[in-house]
Design goal:
This protein is of the alpha/beta class. The chain contains seven helices and seven strands. It has one domain: 3-Layer(aba) Sandwich (Rossmann fold), CATH 3.40.50.170. α3 links the parallel β2 and β3.
Length: 194
């Protein structure tokens, strides 16, 4: 059975690129019947869209500012995603809070990566918050998306040390390196399930 993966991005798409690279290197299509078939962004100028196009992946730009309400944007986004009949919808730096109706529509097949060891530090500014409270470790979490922000089932995590004198930027760079390894691994495990 063919399993289509649709990735949503808002920027450079470094996690998206890591997922695509891993899917090709590990031959997900042959092993699991899975492939990234589309990348959708709420920003037409997102660098990740140009990269995906250059890799032969279908792309869609859907500017959230063109919609009067969050619900109207999400309805249009759902219509675009559903054209690709996804088995999995992957949030990879998609900087929009999704409506409960959107989340319910993709219940069980919508995942995200968050730059902290959930349940700690939901929301924004995770690296600075970890430094501010004196954490010895930080990291990232792949989780299922629910209507409660950053509270879905944890699928996988990776930890990095918080070093003396760390800045939020330095810690973020170390965490991002782990995200690029963790996210493809978590997705491959999901795609291997019957």
């Amino acid at each position: 059975m063919h399993k289509n993966i649709v990735i949503l991005i808002s920027g450079s798409g470094s996690n998206m690129a890591a997922i695509v690279a891993a899917s090709r290197q590990r031959h997900w299509l042959e092993r699991h019947g899975a492939e990234v078939v589309a990348v959708i962004s709420n920003r037409a100028e997102a660098a990740g869209l140009a990269w995906a196009r250059s890799e032969g992946i279908a792309t869609v730009a859907l500017d959230h500012r063109a919609f009067a309400t969050r619900e109207a944007f999400d309805a249009s986004l759902m219509a675009e995603i559903d054209r690709f009949d996804p088995a999995l919808v992957v949030l990879a730096g998609f900087m929009r809070i999704l409506t409960p109706g959107f989340v319910a529509h993709y219940d069980g097949c919508l995942i995200n990566i968050h730059p902290s060891l959930l349940p700690a530090f939901t929301g924004l500014h995770t690296h600075q918050r970890a430094i501010d409270v004196g954490c010895n470790v930080a990291g990232c979490t792949v989780h299922r998306v629910t209507a409660d922000l950053d509270h879905g089932e944890i699928l996988d995590q990776a930890a990095v040390p918080v070093l003396p004198g760390d800045t939020a930027e330095a810690l973020a760079a170390r965490v991002l390196t782990q995200e690029h390894l963790l996210y493809p691994r978590a997705i491959e495990r999901l795609m291997a399930l019957p």
